[in-house]
Amino acid sequence: MKTREEFLSMALALGDAYTDMPFHDDNWVLVRHRHNRKTYAFTFERQGHIWVNLKFPADWRDFFRDVYPSVQPAYHMNKEHWSSVIFDGSIPDDEIARMTQMSFELTN
Q: Most buried residue, 26, 58, 83, 102, by most Cβ within 10 Å?
């Protein structure tokens, strides 16, 4: 996964969701559940890459951070519950989809 548009298309397909830009900053596009308005993905560009902040269960958070150097404690968020996933080509698309599904389920 390389582009924000590609990610947003996949993330929106998970369920009844919508994009939002509550910070009035075009760089930050969020994906929210329609029924409870909780956010499950925060997308932004930083250091020449698209980054996505996602929420993982603690055991998976540690696993993803250990296996993929491009999964880091979340930029600008609670680092215990949220992680930043950097789209630098090092994480397979199916893993990004699995990570997004986890965040979707945890916030649903």
A: 83
Of 102, 107, 35, 20, the residue nearest 63 (C-alpha) = 102
Beta bridge partners of 101: none
Structure-token pair, residue 55: 């929420």
Quickly tell me which residue has 């929420």 as its tokens. Answer: 55
Other C-beta atoms lying within 10 Å of the C-beta of residue 75: 16
Residue 76: the pLDDT is 87
The structure's pTM equals: 0.95
The strands making up 82-86's β-sheet, listed across from edge to edge, are 17-20, 29-33, 39-46, 49-55, 82-86, 71-73
How many C-beta atoms lie closer than 10 Å to residue 53's C-beta?
24
Strand segments, DSSP code E, in the chain are 17-20, 29-33, 39-46, 49-55, 71-73, 82-86
